[in-house]
Amino acid sequence: MVSYLIKSIVCSGLLLAVYHFLLEREKMLRFNRFFLLGAMVFSLLAPLATIEIPSAPANEVFTAGPVVSNVAGIASVDNSIPMEVTARDSYPDYLPWLAYGLIAAALLLRMGFQVIAIVRPRQRRTIPFQTAKLVLMPGNTPVYSFFHFIFIPQKAFDEQAIPKEILTHELAHARQMHSLDILFTELLIALWWFNPLLLLYRRAIRLNHEYLADAAVLAGPTGVKEYQLMLLDSLLAQRTTVLASSFNYPVTKKRLAMMTTNINLRIQFVKKALVVLLLPGLAFVLAEKTYSQKNPQKTIPSNNATKAKTPSADGVSKEELDTFYAVMEKHTRYVTDKKGRRGPVTEMDTKILKEEFAIYSRMSEEQQLAVRKAGISLSENDIPVKKAPTPEMFENWKKPHIFGIWLNEKHVPNTELDKYKNTDIAEYTLHKLIGRGLKGKGYKYQLELTTNDEFDKTFDRRMRDRIVLVRITWFEPPKAKTDMKK
């Protein structure tokens, strides 16, 4: 979370600097409008992206255990190993979220009250005005707009004392839906209040709205100097609510200077192109980098066993094939799971298993395919070889929202890696969780690590138990008699 906050704030700051130094002085107002809105969203979402960087494939790890394993419903296995998870106190995680929720709720309530203050029903007289509606307000109310409503003082309207330039200015706000930008910005500020730079975005967006509305006025018969004098006359007028667009928005040198800025289409094109090229590069820098082995999603949960030897062209004789199935059946018993399905559990010692694998290795492709269709999977693991991760990979694994760590077959918190160096790791295997495997997990990858000490301690046993047998056939429970009659 801390990493995300830092990246989000840095990204919003960089894009705001790009706007200030590259775009703000250019008269490409519509492009700037959508750049500012998009920059806020981009800075919030870009740090959440994950880029998978392939690393050199490590020798695959397999769990030391019985020579023969039975995996229930292996076709839908979620690549997670059901091991005991170290319990941890939830209080430190609970407190920050509570503080975030309280502050966000307070800001959302304030925003709601401001909207109600503008749109709450009153005895107000409304008059159609082109694509908007004029709302006549009592007292000396400043002119402002909210969506397609333009609020003006009734007395000034009756006396026809409101210049047409002011109405044209507010009509531009209404037509271009500037209120939608303001509400969207306020919503982001309420939900992502931890980023103070969003307040500067709000100010830049409001000023750009005024540029657009000023441009709409100057597109008519009104002269620049005449309009500038009118703006200066309204400088000391009363301010209105932050959610409304007002003609009396503070007059600055920037707003007056923008009216006389010349348009250079070539320079504008270059700056737009630079922005378009900048965003993908910035997204790559901010995204989380994960180092994975090649094709981790293809790792089968049969203890990372490799494929059997190349099938023989001729295959084995019928007698050997019958012997293979007979021995397999002799060492198989059938169990029933909670759903009433029956499945095989095969157990045999290492010597017999090696004999079975020898026959399987000499089978033809058709014979091996028939064995697999029968729910029998035989494979032989590679010889274990030490391969330490790079320092960058090792540091990356400490991110708990990306990696779940199993160290020497035990699920441990990511902080456990602080006790080790990358050279202390002898093997690593990465599984990408998909589908049901992601359910209830706070991470996207399951990482299995073996230390040098564990590697040395289990090496002889792993060399002896390299052949792996998995039975994956399940039988549906028999239908009830009532179903059979139907």
- Mean pLDDT, all residues: 82
User: Which value, in Å, is the CA radius of gyration?
Assistant: 35 Å
Sequence stretches where pLDDT stays below 50 over 5 or more residues: 56-90, 293-306, 481-486
Q: How is the biggest beta sheet arranged? A: 5 strands, mixed
Q: Count helical runs.
A: 16
Give the terminus-to-terminus CA distance.
58 Å
Give the tally of β-strands: 16
Strand line-up of the largest beta sheet: 3-4-6-5-7
Query: What share of residues is helical?
Result: 40-55%
Percent strand: 15-25%
* Shape type: elongated
Instruction: Supply the helix-strand structural class.
Output: alpha/beta
Organism: Dyadobacter jiangsuensis
Domain Peptidase M56: 151-258
Protein name: Beta-lactamase regulating signal transducer with metallopeptidase domain
Keywords: Membrane, Transmembrane, Transmembrane helix
What's this, in brief?
With 486 residues, the chain is an alpha/beta fold. It has 16 helices and 16 strands.
Properties at a glance:
16 helices; elongated; 45% helix; Beta-lactam_resp_regulator; disordered C terminus; 5-stranded mixed beta sheet; Peptidase_M56; Beta-lactamase regulating signal transducer with metallopeptidase domain; alpha/beta; 486 residues; 16 strands; transmembrane; 4-stranded mixed beta sheet
